[in-house]
């Protein structure tokens, strides 16, 4: 779940045109195939509807999540590209993408450091949080890093310059303000923060978090609200197609989109940025997906497809 999410959000019903836009992105891609941030490793659940989404046909329901598969990322099946002078050229050449793997696997060993308050523009929040985990103990931070590696491979294969906010190369963090600053300093064309949620059993599906219009202190999202919405809508629609997962049944009014003004990673961003909650780690059916290496590859593909669609206009 979002690393600076210390306040449980209140679900909002999205305007009809958002749902239409999401459906349009999905249908234009063809074949959507959908039926019908402190403390311990467990984050505060979000409450919402108890209705469940249909399980993708290729996944069998289970009572508990299996041990996470550790197979490496599959070779990407990206658009044609070529290597010139040691660099890959392709359809995303000249584009810079920053991938922000939510949380850090060792945050729980540095609770004092990550509890430090940082300025997110409108208020102060914790530097970072531990994230959530499945009931079987698979940490969100491990999930986010795995998907981020897969996503990096897919984007690099298309010629993009890809920067990770961290790559298991520091003991904790980075803090939410630094995560935003990395994207800003890179003058990224797009930033995606990868997460998984920690909500109640029965709450299923993914959602993409968009920046609200915020202007206060160090925060001013006025220039990124519209392009971020475009980026997020495209990722949502193509995530459906790639994974077969339905949009969240408890946040976003079944659109797969949610707008928030309380996340420092979005408030402090000066470049287009979204978060994606790929599923609910506390629901056993979603957990079975999140712990599957094959599904994580599909998740990375869906995000990559959305980013590519955003760049292509």
Walkthrough of the structure:
By secondary structure, this protein is α/β, with parallel strands linked by helices. The protein is built from eight helices and twelve strands. The strands form four sheets. Strands 6-3-7-12-8-11 form a six-stranded mixed sheet, sandwiched between helices. It has a two-stranded antiparallel sheet with strand order 1-2. A hairpin with a 2-residue loop joins strand 9 and strand 10 (219-220). Helix 1 (16-29) crosses helix 5 (225-243) and helix 3 (140-156) crosses helix 8. The model is unreliable at 5-21, 25-66 and 74-81 (pLDDT under 50).
Largest beta sheet, briefly?
6 strands, mixed
Instruction: Give the helix level as a range of percent.
Output: 25-40%
Shape: globular
Radius of gyration: 18 Å
Given as residue ranges, the uncertain stretches (5+ residues, pLDDT < 50) are 5-21, 25-66, 74-81
Assembly type of the shown chains? Answer: single chain
Q: What percentage of amino acids are in beta strands?
A: 15-25%
Q: How many separate helices? A: 8
Secondary-structure element series:
HEEEHEEHEHEEEEHEHEHH
N-C termini distance: 29 Å
| Derived structural class | alpha/beta
Number of strands: 12
Strand order in the sheet with the most strands: 6-3-7-12-8-11
Q: Give the averaged pLDDT, no decimals.
A: 82
Describe the structure concisely for a colleague:
It is built from 8 helices and 12 strands.
Helices and strands in order:
Blueprint: H1 16-29, E1 82-84, E2 87-89, E3 96-101, H2 111-114, E4 117-119, E5 124-126, H3 140-156, E6 161-164, H4 176-185, E7 190-197, E8 207-211, E9 215-216, E10 219-220, H5 225-243, E11 257-260, H6 264-267, E12 273-280, H7 284-290, H8 293-312
Parallel strand pairs: 3-6, 3-7, 7-12, 8-11
Antiparallel strand pairs: 1-2, 4-5, 8-12, 9-10
């Amino acid at each position: 779940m979002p690393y600076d999410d210390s306040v449980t959000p209140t679900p909002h019903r999205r305007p009809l045109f958002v749902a239409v836009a999401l459906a349009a992105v999905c249908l234009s891609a063809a074949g959507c195939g959908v039926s019908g941030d402190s403390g311990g490793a467990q984050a505060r659940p979000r409450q919402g509807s108890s209705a469940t989404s249909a399980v993708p046909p290729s996944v069998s329901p289970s009572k508990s999540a299996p041990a996470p598969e550790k197979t490496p990322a599959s070779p990407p099946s990206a658009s044609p590209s070529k290597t010139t002078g040691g660099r890959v050229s392709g359809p995303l050449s000249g584009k810079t993408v920053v991938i922000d793997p939510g949380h850090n696997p060792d945050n729980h060993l540095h609770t004092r450091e990550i509890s430090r308050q940082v300025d997110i523009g409108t208020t102060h929040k914790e530097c970072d949080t531990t994230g959530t985990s499945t009931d079987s103990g698979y940490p969100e931070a491990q999930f986010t890093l795995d998907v981020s590696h897969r996503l990096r491979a897919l984007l690099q294969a298309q010629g993009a310059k890809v920067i990770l906010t961290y790559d298991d190369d520091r003991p904790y963090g980075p803090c939410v303000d630094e995560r935003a600053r990395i994207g800003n300093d890179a003058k990224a064309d797009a930033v995606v923060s990868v997460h998984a949620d920690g909500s109640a059993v029965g709450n299923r599906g993914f959602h993409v978090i968009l920046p609200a219009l915020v202007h206060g202190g160090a925060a001013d999202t006025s220039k990124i609200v519209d392009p971020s919405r475009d980026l997020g809508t495209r990722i949502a629609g193509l995530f459906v197609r790639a994974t077969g997962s339905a949009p969240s049944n408890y946040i976003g009014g079944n659109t797969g989109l949610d707008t928030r003004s309380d996340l420092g990673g979005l408030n402090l961003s000066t470049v287009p940025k979204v978060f994606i909650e790929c599923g609910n780690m506390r629901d056993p059916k979603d957990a079975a997906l999140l712990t599957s290496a094959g599904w994580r590859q599909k998740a990375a593909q869906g995000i990559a497809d959305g980013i590519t669609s955003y760049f292509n206009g």
